[in-house]
Every structure is written in C-alpha cells, then in structure tokens.
Design the sequence.
C-alpha cells in the first residue's frame, strides 16, 4: 500500500528523480516514451507540442509563464519553436538548474529565464504574462484553486492558460481508490471537476480535450521500458527506488486500462 504523501515528500521524490535524468539510460527511455530528452516530469509528448502552441497562441511577441517546469520540458521546446519569451518556475530549484543549463546549450539564453516560485503564491505583478502553461502540475499539488487563482491574476487581458492534468474518475470502489493511490499522482483526487474549478477561479473554459488514450499508451510503454531495463535502473537508482517506481507505473497502467485514471487538457481565458 502506498502511503499518503506530504508536499515535502513529493518535492523530495522529484529531487531524487532529477539526480538521474541526465543519464544516457533515462534519456533513452524518455525519448522512447515522450519523444524528448529533457528529463520530463510530465507526460506531455512531442506529438502534443504543436497543439499546445496553437492553443496558447505563442509567437515572438508573447511572454509565457510555465509553472512546475521541472527540467525544462516542454517549456524550452515551446520557446525554441515559437521564439516567445518564457519564464520557467518550479519548486524545488534542482530541476530548474538543469533547465537553465539546457537553455544555454540550446542557445535560448536570451529567450528563457528561470525562477524558484510556488504556483500558489507567484511573485509576479498582476497581468504580467500573455500565456500561462503547466503540465500535470495540479495533480501534484493540494492547492489547486489557489494555483488557478494566481494564474488568473498573472495573465494579461486577452491572454490564456493551457494545461493538461491527470485525475481519477468519480464513485470509485474501495479497491479502485487504492489502485489510484498506489499508481496515480500524489494529489490527483479532486472534489469537483476542473471545469467547475476554472469557473470558480475567474476563468472561462474554451477547450477540453481528452488525452486519456495517449496517456494510457505512454504509461504502458514506460512500464515496458522500466521492466526491460530493470537491472540497469537498479544499479543507477538503487534497488528500492527503482522497484518502487516499477510498482507505481504498473499500478498506473492498471488504473488507466480500467478507465479510472484520466488525462485531459484544458484551455481557459479570463472570465
């Protein structure tokens, strides 16, 4: 049984993960699953990039804020492909250090900045950004409405927010609830739908796209790769950590196949 995680537990898990994301093995697995090699901490695939760019309306005149940017995927790719200005934020700072190095390597120093910041208390002036993006972030935070409210405060008139997020379906049996706990994101459960949350935090939803099938395929492929390279990952990460990750991903596959764990993408504008 997976224990209930605290916010600090989740941050510690990400810090541990960031220790290995620049290894050749982890990058090879990431390329196979998501089509990128940035050390992705979300499930955004390379195939979703053009959709996200179109929904955000990004171009060289736009200023984008990304929350929960991790090691820079997909924020760096969005900046590279659209020439927009981008500010990548996250806590803790460990992932952003990797993102900063990658930005320099990719020649994005003039386009991309990084800042340690909490999504529920953003240290930026009101109406600072043309576009706000976060990928599978709200399901890793308990303060979902606070984050949505802060995003609303920071977006400029005429701007928008786009985000994919993972969540369980409703009316789950006790067995299914345990499966979601063991395989889903740490704060995935929601008391009300994301469309309702958006409406209550000053947003008007303009797009809702079901990405569950793609997510299920990605999870199954990740599960396959973790099993295929189990010995190498045990040596890289340590047996206990690698085994816990394999177990978590296997449970996630079971949950998505059973239809009790979903991933959707939303676009919203200031109401």
Sequence:
């Amino acid at each position: 049984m997976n224990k209930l995680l605290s916010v600090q537990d989740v941050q510690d898990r990400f810090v541990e993960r960031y220790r290995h994301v620049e290894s050749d093995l982890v990058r090879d697995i990431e390329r196979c699953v998501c089509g990128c090699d940035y050390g992705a901490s979300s499930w955004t695939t390379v195939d979703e990039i053009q959709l996200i760019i179109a929904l955000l309306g990004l171009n060289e005149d736009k200023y984008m804020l990304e929350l929960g940017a991790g090691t820079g995927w997909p924020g760096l790719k969005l900046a590279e492909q659209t020439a927009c200005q981008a500010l990548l934020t996250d806590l803790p700072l460990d992932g952003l250090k990797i993102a900063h190095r990658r930005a320099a390597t990719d020649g994005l120093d003039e386009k991309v900045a990084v800042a340690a910041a909490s999504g529920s208390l953003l240290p930026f002036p009101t109406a600072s950004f043309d576009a706000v993006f976060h990928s599978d972030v709200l399901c890793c935070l308990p303060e979902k409405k606070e984050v949505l409210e802060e995003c609303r405060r920071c977006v400029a008139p005429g701007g928008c927010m786009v985000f994919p997020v993972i969540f369980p379906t409703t009316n789950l049996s006790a067995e299914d609830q345990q499966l979601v706990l063991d395989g889903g994101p740490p704060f995935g459960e929601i008391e009300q739908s994301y469309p309702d949350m958006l409406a209550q935090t000053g947003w008007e939803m303009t797009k809702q796209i079901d990405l569950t099938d793609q997510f299920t395929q990605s999870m199954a492929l990740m599960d396959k790769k973790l099993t295929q390279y189990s010995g190498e990952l045990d040596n890289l990460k340590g047996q206990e950590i690698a085994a816990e990750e394999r177990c978590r991903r296997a449970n996630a596959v079971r949950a998505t196949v059973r239809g009790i764990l979903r991933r959707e993408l939303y676009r919203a504008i200031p109401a």
About this structure: The chain has one domain: 7-270. The radius of gyration is 18 Å. The first strand starts at residue 63 and ends at 67.
